[in-house]
Amino acid sequence: MSTAHPDAVAAESTGLSAKQARILRYLRENAADRTYFKSRLIADDLGLSAKEVGANMSAVADAATDVDVEKWGYSSGTTWMVTA
User: Fold this and answer.
1) Which residue segments constitute the domains of the chain, with CATH numbers given?
2) In sequence order, which residues have a C-beta less than 8 Å from that of residue 10 and are 6 or more positions away?
3) Separation CA 69–CA 80 (nearest Å)
4) pLDDT in tens, 8-33
5) What is the pTM of this model?
């Protein structure tokens, strides 16, 4: 039985950092319910800063195969359009 944290396993298999894997997992879990995500709201939910989310989002978008991540707009913070 493995004791590895799921984010560490995901990061290892996709080449993402643990923080990037957390963001990707968050988007995957919430993409069915929402389409648009603000960096600051993702950050609040994950205990990160909006700057950390934005800085890692391009790597997440490149690595994601089951969700499409597109920078959508910048009004009161960056908004990302995520489709599953």
Assistant:
1) 16-81 (1.10.10)
2) 16, 21, 24, 25
3) 7
4) 444 555 699 999 999 999 999 999 99
5) 0.81
